[in-house]
Amino acid sequence: MSGVCFLLLMLPLLSAQTYHWGPCPTPKVQPNFNLQQYLGKWYEIEKLPAPFARGKCIEINYSIRRDGTIQLLTSQIYKDKKRHAEGTGVVPDPREPAKLGVSFSYFTPYVPYWVLTTDYTSLSVVYSCTDILRIFHFNYSWILARSPYLPPETVHYAKQLLIDEGIDIFRMTHTDQNCKDK
Predict the structure, then answer these.
(1) How many DSSP H helices and E strands does the chain contain?
(2) 103 alpha-carbon distance from chain centroid
(3) Nearest 10 degrees: CA dihedral of 30, 35, 168, 156?
(4) 118, 126 in Cβ contact below 8 A?
(5) What backbone torsions phi and psi does residue 111 show, to the nearest 5 degrees?
(6) Which of 18, 20, 30, 53 is the least crowded, having the fewest Cβ atoms under 10 Å away?
(7) Whole-number pLDDT of residue 113
C-alpha cells in the first residue's frame, strides 16, 4: 500500500518529465572522456522535457573549482527574465570519467549525468536517468553544441545515437536559441 501511495505522490512531479516503466537503460558512454577538453560553454539544442529548463537561450558553462569539483553555471531566458542556476558535478569513479554526478542543491543527491558522445568542439549528447525502485524511471537527455545551432544532419546523428542506446526520444523538443539579449 505504501508503494502505491508513493507512486501517486510522485506523479505530479513527473508530469513535466519523461518517464517509463522499468529500470533505467544503461547506454554506452564516451570512451576516454577528457573533462579538460569538455570544459567551457555549451548551448542546448534539443532536450527531453525538464521542469528546470523551460526557457529559451539555454546555455551551460562547465569549469573546475579549486576543490576539484565541476562548477556548472546554467542560464536561460524564462518569462522574459534571464535566470541562472549553479550546480556541482563530480566524477564518482575515475575509471569512468564520462559518468558524472550532478546536483543543483545541497539538499539533493548527485544524479547521473552521462556524456554519451562528444567531439569536444561541436557536439555533445548527455543522458540522465533516475530509477525509482526499479518500477519506473524518469530521464533527461540533451543535445548540446558549442554554437547556438547545429546542422540538421548532426542533430539527426545525435537522436539516432539515443535511439540506438534504447532511449525514447519521442518527447524531445527543440530549444529556441533566437535571443536578442543573451
Answers:
(1) 3, 10
(2) 11
(3) -80
(4) no
(5) -110, 155
(6) 20
(7) 96
Nearest Cα neighbor of 41 from 68, 71, 66, 65 is 71
Please name the amino acid found at residue 115: V
Question: C-alpha grid cell for residue 130?
Answer: 533516475
Quote the cell numbers at residue 67: 576543490
Write out pLDDT tens, residues 26-40: 999 999 999 999 999
Whole-angstrom CA distances from 167 to 20, 76, 135, 151, 161 are: 10, 25, 17, 22, 9
Question: Do residues 165 and 25 touch, judged by C-beta distance below 8 A?
Answer: yes
The Cα 178–Cα 182 span in angstroms is 9
| Placement of cell 519506473 in the chain | 136
The radius of gyration computed from the CA coordinates of the chain, to the nearest angstrom, equals: 16
More confident residue, 108 or 68: 68
Taking the CA atoms of residue 44, residue 137, residue 13 and residue 15 in that order, the dihedral angle to the nearest 10 degrees is 70
Half-sphere exposure of 1 (CA within 13 A, CB side): 0
**pLDDT per position as a tens digit, 98-133:** 999 999 988 889 999 999 999 999 999 999 998 888
Cα gap 143→63, rounded to integer Å: 19
Residues 16, 21, 23: CA angle, nearest 5 degrees: 105
- With vertex at residue 82, the alpha carbon angle to CA 78 and CA 85, rounded to the nearest 5 degrees, is 90
